[in-house]
Amino acid sequence: MSQKPFQTEVSQLLKLIIHSLYSHKEIYLRELISNSSDALDKLRYLTLTDEKYKEISFEPKITIEFEEGDNPTMTITDTGIGMSKKELEDNLGTIAKSGTKNFLSKLSGDAKKDSQLIGQFGVGFYSSFMVAEKVDVVSLKAGKKEAWMWTSDGETGFEITKGVKKDSGTSIKLYLNEEGKEFASRWKLEGLIKKYSDHIDAPIMLTYEDTEYDDKGKEKSKETKTTQVNDAKAFWTRSKNDLKKKDYNEFYKSLSQDSSDPLDYIHFRAEGNLEFTILFFIPSVASPDIYRADYQSGVKLYVNRVFITEDDKELLPSWLRFVKGIIDSSDLPLNVSREILQQNRVMAKIRSNSVKKILDKLKTIATKKEKYAGFFEQYGRLIKEGVYQDFEHKDALTELLRFKSTKEEGLVSLREYVGRMREDQKSIYYITGQNEVSLKNSPLLEMYKGKDIEVLILDDEIDEIIITSVPKYDEKDLKSVKRSGAAEDFSEDKNEDSEKELKSVLKKLKKVLGEKVKDVKVSNRLSESPSCIVADENDPTAQMQEIMRSMGQADMPQVKPILEVNPEHVIVKKLKDMTKKKSFDDIAFLLFEQALIQEGVKLEDPAGFVERLNKVIAGTL
Which own/partner pairs from 247-251 qualify as long-range (CB within 8 Å, at least 24 positions apart)? Predict the structure, then answer.
């Protein structure tokens, strides 16, 4: 049969793998064993739930063989579901998984950096080509009579021809290259199986030649032996007392194809009316697809250690999509479907208990400031998403929120903020925007700085939406300094004499600016700047309007801001004598436009702004 080309992305991936500088090439075995285990899980499930497969004699097993010498090989065989001709082509010739596509999108062109991505992502079957110059895959789909063989050197494409295989499953033979020949060794393979795959719940058998020697060290006899290497007990069913942190780390790496240790883990077994086991991991680094609509669920569901699904987003709330791990229940039916999961009371209880256990763990992590800062950097947006979406756990999630602040470097909690509030302070204050530096220098903070009041800096673009779902904390209102009402807490600072003195200025400003503003007022929040804009209490802020437009609400009516002017500023004071001069109009617009710029709002007429600014500059020269 003629050779078929690889999909472009596969060729790109294989080129990187074959010429890889990645030092831990041994992970290829972990990847292949993991694939074999998945194939066994799929057939086990079908033999229990599908009449067509119940007659199949199923003995779950993974066997590894090797040949030493000048042309070393290593073969891994499973008794799993197997692949048809089309599945061989689709699974081994193209990339379907978004994770691998994300892997490719991260490539930088730097060979050393790119090779490290192999460990971060894992690249499944393709990792074989790190240690092999050629790979043969022979597979017989369960229930079919015809076997097929896929062959490739990883560079020129692949061929699929009829193969010979008696039992269902897949056999992968690696023709080891110079760097891979070390893996044609009993002790090397045995060590790697114990290191990476001891938890696999099917027996992993290793075939090797056992040589006996006499007392003088001479070879006495040779015998081919096959022994089980792994413990073959589902990892999560083992007692926590028998497991060490190192064991959890290795299991996580095998489960997730991540080369880094997890940030933390949760292992819990519920007994009594409802029996289930959960083993969850919090990865140290967020997966690249975590904010994609088609993100891959990281939690696998088992029923009595029988694998059911890993592609179900009902197992945990969507804001917990960073969690990877296992749920194993004795009380769910084997033929559980997505619809059943959505309505099943047992699953609802498992889900609720799982969320509580994760929240308890996050609460514990939060007591270690540096560790939690690392977590929040990776997953803070998902915690915010949870605050907005998950009413049941909103209070617990609110405690996990962290913000930048005008008081200290790093992140602070609402609990910390309240703990150092002034006795006479009535509310919790915050400012939203997309640039920390400009927010910290905003004119809207001048009054708070003067009174030594802490303001939270919310510089994530989604903060504007999320914070509205937290109107109160510890019986204190959360107030945006961008709203007119925030200054009412300091109404005693109002200078009524200033308002009377500036009555004509305010009237003229409002007339000149017309429909651009909702109102013009004297400000009690400014000390250094001449002007600022704020939103009326019930109106969306300028930033919220931008967000809503970016979400497709293009026909949203323009909401006008309130312009506030500083009665003590020299520019505003001089305006009292300029109400009848032509230059008043230009200065009025400049006061308004500079306030817009400081709030990150795009000007409707930048050319007009520049022309007015140039006029004023020319007048001072």
Answer: 248/281, 250/195, 250/196, 250/198, 250/199, 251/199, 251/279
Strand bridging mode 472-473 / 476-480: antiparallel
- Helix axis angle, 583-598 to 503-513, nearest 10°: 80
Tokens of 536: 């009326």
Residue 134 DSSP SS3:
strand
In this structure, are strands 427-432 and 455-458 parallel, antiparallel, or unpaired? parallel
Q: What's the pLDDT tens digit per position in 422-444? A: 888 889 999 998 889 989 999 99
Residue type at position 543: Q
Q: Is 96 helix (H, G, I), strand (E, B) or coil?
A: coil
Closest CA to 508 of 581, 426, 400: 581
Other C-beta atoms within 10 Å of 330: how many?
A: 14
Buried b / exposed e over 217-255, threshold 16 CB at 10 Å, is: eeeeeeeeeeeebbbbebbbebeeeeeeeeebebbbbbb
Six-digit token string for 216: 């003088």
Each residue's pLDDT tens digit, 387-418: 999 999 999 999 999 999 999 889 999 999 99
Instruction: Provide the 3-class DSSP secondary structure of residue 204.
Output: strand
Range with the poorest average pLDDT among 56-70, 298-312, 385-399, 540-554: 540-554
Nearest to 411 by CA among 479, 460, 467: 460
Give whole-number Cα distances, 316 to 150, 263, 354, in Å.
38, 19, 8
Neighbour count for residue 294 (Cβ, 10 Å): 6
The amino acid present at 413, given as its one-letter code, is S
Quote the CA–CA distance of 44 and 41 in Å, as a whole number. Answer: 5
Q: Give the C-alpha separation, 543 to 598, whole Å.
A: 12
User: Across residues 563-591, what is the average pLDDT?
Assistant: 90
Place of tokens 């194993």: 328
Q: How many CB atoms lie within 10 A of CB 515?
A: 7
Say if residues 351 and 342 touch (Cβ distance below 8 Å): no
Cα 332 → chain centroid: 29
Q: Characterize the bridge pairing of strands 73-78 and 169-176.
A: antiparallel
Q: Give this prediction's pTM.
A: 0.75
On the CB side of 319, CA atoms within 13 Å amount to 18
Distance CA 295, CA 289 (A): 5
Eight-state DSSP code of residue 412: B
- Cα separation of 252 and 115, whole Å? 21
Contact (CB, 8 A) for 81 and 46: yes
Dist. CA 415–CA 403, nearest whole Å: 11
d(CA 423, CA 429): 15
Name the nearest CA neighbour of 266 among 353, 199, 361.
361
Contact 126, 12 (CB under 8 A): no
Q: How far is CA 90 from the centre of its chain?
A: 28
CA-CA distance, 131 to 175, in Å (whole number)?
8
Residue 186: how many other CB atoms lie within 10 Å: 18
Per-residue H/E/C for 364-409:
HHCCCHHHHHHHHHHHHHHHHHHHHHCHHHHHHHHHHCCEEECCCC
